[in-house]
């Protein structure tokens, strides 16, 4: 099968490393649809592609993960066979290399039925899932308009698995009274 350059989605590589990296990606998507993992870590998978010699960036991989997640969840909700999924790939085939499409078909043929039977796939929430919360206390000591503030605040960072499977971090600051409302002491 040699090497190929798709020119699409930032993928240019030999077929064997692409197959292995796509296989790992599809397996993570299946795990996410089974609610076994909260999301698909795009950065980690992108590093796996790059380590295998596959030219890939996080933004392009995120697009691929979104497309494959949508395909798998739609196929599960509609109880599609591997053949029906292949037919449904339509425009996606032009976007992905042939090797990637073969892996998608293979994974669906092997593991698709387990998702179809899973109630979790049919009733998937369309909101993100919080997978980690971190906070730290800080002290504002001065600003442009005030020489001496000495004002405490809390910086919170939430790691959220989006419905698409991507893991995102969201940060914000709260005053101490705002934080106490979020974290009432019994």
Automatic annotation (TrEMBL):
Coiled coil: none
Residue ranges occupied by any COMM domain in the UniProt entry: 129-186
GO molecular function: NF-kappaB binding
Role of this protein: Scaffold protein in the commander complex that is essential for endosomal recycling of transmembrane cargos; the commander complex is composed of the CCC subcomplex and the retriever subcomplex. May modulate activity of cullin-RING E3 ubiquitin ligase (CRL) complexes. Down-regulates activation of NF-kappa-B. Inhibits TNF-induced NFKB1 activation.
Family: Belongs to the COMM domain-containing protein 6 family.
Protein name: COMM domain-containing protein 6
């Amino acid at each position: 099968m040699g090497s190929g350059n798709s020119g699409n989605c930032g993928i240019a590589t030999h077929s064997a490393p692409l197959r292995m990296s796509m296989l790992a990606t599809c397996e993570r998507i299946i795990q996410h649809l089974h609610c076994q993992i909260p999301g698909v870590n795009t950065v980690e998978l992108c590093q796996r592609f790059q380590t295998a010699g596959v030219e890939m960036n996080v933004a392009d991989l995120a697009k691929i993960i979104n497309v494959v997640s949508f395909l798998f969840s739609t196929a599960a909700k509609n109880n599609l066979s591997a053949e029906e999924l292949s037919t449904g790939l339509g425009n996606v085939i032009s976007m992905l290399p042939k090797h990637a499409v073969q892996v998608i078909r293979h994974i669906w043929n092997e593991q698709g039925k387990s998702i179809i039977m899973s109630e979790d796939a049919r009733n998937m929430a369309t909101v993100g899932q919080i997978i980690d919360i971190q906070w730290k206390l800080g002290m504002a000591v001065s600003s442009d308009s005030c020489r001496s503030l000495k004002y405490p605040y809390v910086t919170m960072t939430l790691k959220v698995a989006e419905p698409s499977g991507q893991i995102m971090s969201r940060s914000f600051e709260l005053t101490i009274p705002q934080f106490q409302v979020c974290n009432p002491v019994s």
